[in-house]
Amino acid sequence: MNYRKLRNIEVSSIGYGCMGFSHGYGEIPSEEEAIRLMRLAYDKGCTFFDTAEVYGDGHNERLVGKAIEPFREHIILASKLFIDSEAVGDSFESLEAHIRAHLDASLEKLRTDYLDIYYQHRVNDDIPVEDVARVMGKLIVEGKIRGWGQSQPIAEQIRRAHEITPLTAVQSEYSMMERQFEQDVIPTCKELNIGFVPFSPLASGFLSGKYSNEDQYQGDDVRRVITRFNKENVNKNQPLIDLIQKYADEQQATPAQISLAWMLYKEPFIVPIPGMRKENRVDENLGAADVKLTDEAYLALEHELSKIQIYGNRTDKDIAKLQDME
Ligand SMILES: NC(=O)c1ccc[n+]([C@@H]2O[C@H](COP(=O)([O-])OP(=O)(O)OC[C@H]3O[C@@H](n4cnc5c(N)ncnc54)[C@H](OP(=O)(O)O)[C@@H]3O)[C@@H](O)[C@H]2O)c1
User: Fold this and answer.
1) Who is most buried in 1, 200, 300, 318, counting CB within 10 A?
2) Nearest protein Cα to ligand 1, atom 40
């Protein structure tokens, strides 16, 4: 494993996205197995664990808290809160009380008295980002959080918030299938020395090349509704998988590793957090930190990628459809 910095906070180059142990990918493993995998990742050098209050309605924070308790001080722990603008209303005092209550509940579940990074899960224009930044600034001074972040902001929201309390990280969807934030969010992070943490860096596993249109998904699995997994798009996106496989063969790596190595190559402040619930995937994904693309290989891959059209995406609107499904 090797290490990178999200602003002033050092993390392993690949983090652990823990959501799938509670939420979003159908049937979950046993608590014992989930804890075993998170601890195994730590033993292999992973020091960055990502959760959120909403994953499994607190289940995920409880699980992660239990898993990391023996080595809490040696890892970077990130969680997230949703700010309910209706509940908060217009007053700064009420916003502050809201954020403090959510943080305290998260800390208790996570068995710790501080978070390393606390994200606003979706930046909500009804609540001024400056006010959220002010509250986060107070929490940093008090030592309840070491740094803070925004998930899925636009560049302008990053700038406004950062001016009040510098952001540690921005967490947004980024992969070979979702590159919209290359336009201005990632350059803004670079300019302001903010880390960028790609979620769904394997496009919900698609980029591993291990899924076909024969696969069936159950329960709360987002792959039932996100359009990149519909049968037609799985077929249409095959040229992308073929391309990644070609580079995987050349580099003696796997497609998942090439997909992660590609983003690691781009900028030293990019730290992906794949989700993984099987031991071989922990080995494979963490192993991507050691797959180094040469300048030549990267440029050739980038050039070929630019010619490939991507079909389908992953939107919050599509994911919301799961609520009405059996
Ligand atoms: N801020 C936000 O709004 C937001 C939104 C979504 C996610 N997140 C965070 O980002 C993390 C990662 O997102 P994600 O889980 O969607 O990422 P992802 O890694 O793109 O997708 C995870 C899926 O890919 C599969 N997978 C991972 N590595 C694989 C491999 N090597 N071979 C085959 N399949 C593989 C996993 O399978 P198994 O799990 O079955 O092994 C799982 O089904 C989450 O855990 C969460 O912490 C944040």
Assistant:
1) 200
2) 277
CA angle 194, 197, 198 (to 5 degrees): 140
Give domain status of residue 195, yes or no: yes
Provide the 3-class DSSP secondary structure of residue 39.
helix
Share above pLDDT 70 across residues of the chain, in percent, rounded to a whole number = 100
- Whether residue 112 contacts residue 144, with contact meaning beta carbons closer than 8 Å, is answered with no
Atom number of ligand 1 nearest to Cα 274? 19
C-beta of 20 in contact with ligand 1 (< 6 A): yes
Query: pLDDT at position 116, please?
Result: 98
Whether 214 shows a pLDDT value over 90: the answer reads no
The residues annotated with a catalytic role in the active site are: 55
Q: Is there a domain that residue 140 lies in?
A: yes
- For 298, other C-beta atoms within 10 Å of its C-beta total 16
Which CATH number characterizes residue 23's domain? 3.20.20.100
Task: Give the separation between CA 11 and CA 203, rounded to whole angstroms.
Answer: 22
* 268 is a domain residue: yes
Q: Indicate which residue's Cα is closest to atom 35 of ligand 1.
A: 205
Domain count, the chain: 1
Is the minimum distance from the CB of 18 to ligand 1 under 6 angstroms? Answer: yes
Domain that holds residue 42: 3-209+254-291
249/256 Cα distance (integer angstroms): 12
Residue 165 C-beta-side C-alpha neighbours within 13 Å: 23
Read off the pLDDT of residues 226-237 as tens digits, 9 standing for 90 and up. Answer: 899 898 999 999
Does the residue 181 lie in any domain?
yes
**pTM for this prediction:** 0.97
Is any atom of ligand 1 closer than 6 Å to the C-beta of 49? no
Q: Would you say 260 and 201 are in contact if contact means Cβ atoms under 8 Å apart?
A: yes
Indicate whether residue 208 lines ligand 1 (CB < 6 A): yes
Is residue 118 very low, low, confident or very high in pLDDT (cuts 50, 70, 90)? very high
